[in-house]
Amino acid sequence: MKKTSTRLADGRELIYYDSRDDAMRDAVDRRPLEPTVTTSEVRRDVLLGDSVAIASHRQGRIYHPPANECPLCPSEGDRLSEIPDSSYDVVVFENRFPSLAGDSGRCEVVCFTSDHDSSFADLTEEQAGLVLEAWTDRTAELSHLPAVEQVFCFENRGAEIGVTLGHPHGQIYAYPFTTPRTALMLRSLAAHKEATGGENLFDEVVARELADGSRVVLSSDHWVAFVPYAAHWPYEVHLYPRRRVPDLLGLDEGARTEFPKVYLELLRRFDRIFGEGEPATPYISAWHQAPFGALEEFEGVNRDDFALHLELFTIRRTSGKLKFLAGSESGMSVFINDIQPESAAQRLREVASS
């Protein structure tokens, strides 16, 4: 992998990740951009104990542009985009309309391919492996920023999810705090460790799913994917490396090599859940990594106790119908799932590649 860092016209950082060592990336951003101005602010909710990012400047971000005006396609002639070069493998740049910025963290965009009409599931294993390298590199770099406590790599796919740009891409949020969802996991981890005299809850969950088998979707030498026992979403899969590590940096060579094949298979199965002729399945794919900040509030737990894993889920519950977060989910955070997890796992096994 070759990494080339440059600057856009407004001062934002842009990084090319190339599979070829001889790739030259010297194109200049020719757009007449003013320096980026953000109003990102993090406010603490004292009743719920969580934080909210206030980012009113995002109201002006680009919304469903036509394909010939896509800001994530390579620049070509007089059509100038966020990527100055005329081609790229994988590229990462600071978001022009970030939810988090400055002392409030950082937001980046990850473009998986220059092909506008493609998707992550269409990538080759080599291309998917390069995305994994980019995720890992950005996790390492962002973890060193003074304001950052947790790095979150994710992809929103599909208009139903709220995606405003059709080009295959994901994002990276570098939070200045430990996110509420991760904090819940750490509290459960700490409580279980104390109650059992040191046993790891993540290890027990994975071992339990492997032993039961009814919710396992696929397994390999280095990875295991299963529908969780208490799945929140209609079709939801958790992907764990068999060797527990706290973050992407901890993956060994075997897990890195095998990941593209396993992950691409999962994504392709998601697109086949609802049968032939159905539109592409909308999904959220989310990496859960241990925070880089102090964990004193989670007594007895350290970073190595956390288990890196990816959660992949769709809000589509059946053909033409979506799972909405209505009263119980939005008002009380109590999910109601219309699909039995064992049935979801069975369907995801049925649509395996031949």
Write a structural description:
With 354 residues, the protein is an alpha+beta fold. Helix content is 23%, strand content 23%. It is built from 6 helices and 15 strands. The strands form 3 sheets. An 11-stranded antiparallel beta sheet has the order 1-2-5-6-8-7-12-13-11-10-9, sandwiched between helices. It has a two-stranded antiparallel sheet with strand order 3-4. Strand 10 (223-226) and strand 11 form a beta hairpin. Helix 1 (125-143) packs across helix 4. The longest helix is centred in the middle third of the chain and has 19 residues, at 125-143. The protein is globular.
Mean pLDDT: 95
The total count of helices amounts to 6
Side by side, the strands of the main sheet go 1-2-5-6-8-7-12-13-11-10-9
SSE string:
EEEEEEHEEHHEEEHEEEEHH
What is the 3D shape? globular
Distance between the termini: 31 Å
Instruction: List low-confidence stretches.
Output: none
- Give the tally of β-strands: 15
Report the radius of gyration as a whole number of Å.
Answer: 20 Å
Class computed from helices, strands and strand pairing: alpha+beta
User: What percentage of residues falls in helices of 4 or more residues?
Assistant: 10-25%
Main sheet summary: 11 strands, antiparallel
